[in-house]
Amino acid sequence: MGRLPTAMAPLALLLAARADHAGTALGALLAALYALCGAVGQPLLGRAVDRRRLAGVALAAAGVAGSAFAALAVLGTGRNPVLSCALVALAGLATPPLEAGLRAMWPRLVAPRDQQAAFALDATAQELVYVAGPALVTVTCQIASPAVALIGCAVLGLVGTMVVASRRPARALSPERRSVHWLGPLRSQGLLVLLGAAALLGASLGSFNVYALSAADHHHTSWLAGALPAALSLGSLLGGIAWARVAHRVPTDRLLRTVSVRFAVPFVLFLLTPEPTLAVAAAALPGFFLAPWLASAFRLGDRLAPQGTATEAAAWLVAVIGLGGAAGTALAGPLSTVGPVAVAGLTLTSAAAASLALFLRR
Question: Is residue 30 part of a domain?
Fold first, then answer.
């Protein structure tokens, strides 16, 4: 519940700008600004969690973000674009670090033999957030208005954060709490390689969304634009559940390299411009290895992070995946005028480069 606003806000901002007659351009700017500021804010809040407690930092952030969303709902997005941008930036910067905070706590909360399952189920739950968030905004806008959807972002984020903060592990000091170098987890060369691979993974996901739009135009089937990302998410849900149930006896870094190859290879199919039905089926194949990729990456990131920086390291992973997604979307936009094959090439190249980076630096 606490993570839902990250999936709800971009669509809610787009629809709010259109409802306020501010134009799609302003809505897109607000959605991009929210994502960018969220990526900037997560490592900073993650460092604060490492030095204090998750409960206090997350509650303060949720209060600020919720107030910004409420102000946007009351004031509207079109009356004062500068003020709207400032409020959106504040909401993004103050996104509670629940995702990174929980992933940093899994090694303390579960036995080593269960950690792979815990990280896999966490990644699966995150997929549910990105499926349920846009759907919830769409239903809310049909029943009420985009302003109510923004209020929903404020309420759900605050209530979800309060529930997390009420639990004992979130109120406890980290056993690794200590003074750390100003670079924090970025001192780890292995973590830097992992962050680079994660950014490339994000680029492949961002460009795949553009591929879905391009393929829909190519085949003159508008439903394909939503069906392809949905199939990818469904595959990830199934893959995450299956991954949690399988016992893995090999090191996490080897698992991640294996999963990264299996994630990248199916994108070759999209170079053949498959028919819509086949394309939807093919989209589930890389999706099946997406949650395992994320589960293995966050588990490995926890091991690579210097002592006392686990939450900030997880926050950096969250941030670079989001930034990579934005870059992939931006690069794929011009390529979409050439056709879906060009965009599919970018998606495949990004996924393959992520795999290559992991193999070059073990």
Answer: yes
**Chain position carrying tokens 């395992």:** 292
* Domain housing 112: 4-171
- Residue 36 CA to residue 55 CA, distance in Å, equals 24
**Which residue among 116, 144, 171 closes a domain?**
171
Looking at this protein, which amino acid is placed at residue 323?
L
Nearest C-alpha neighbor of 196 from the set 359, 67, 6: 359
CA distance 59 to 207: 34
pLDDT digits (tens, 9 = 90+) for 152-206: 999 999 999 999 999 998 887 665 555 555 577 888 888 999 999 999 999 999 8
Place of tokens 């001192």: 187
Q: Whole-angstrom Cα distance, residue 207 to residue 3?
A: 23
CATH number at residue 285: 1.20.1250.20
198 and 238 belong to one structural domain: yes
Residues 119 and 97: beta-carbon distance below 8 Å: no
Closest by CA position to 344, among listed 288, 276, 274, 240: 274
pLDDT tens column, 85-126: 999 999 999 999 998 888 888 888 888 888 888 888 888 888
In a domain, 122, yes or no: yes
Same domain, 215 and 71: no
At 337, which amino acid appears?
A: T
Compute the distance between CA of residue 138 and CA of residue 146 in angstroms, rounded to an integer.
Answer: 9
The amino acid at 354? A
Statement to judge: residues 165 and 251 lie in one domain = no
Strand runs labelled E in 221-342: none
CA 203 to chain centre: 12
| d(C-alpha 16, C-alpha 187), whole Å | 42
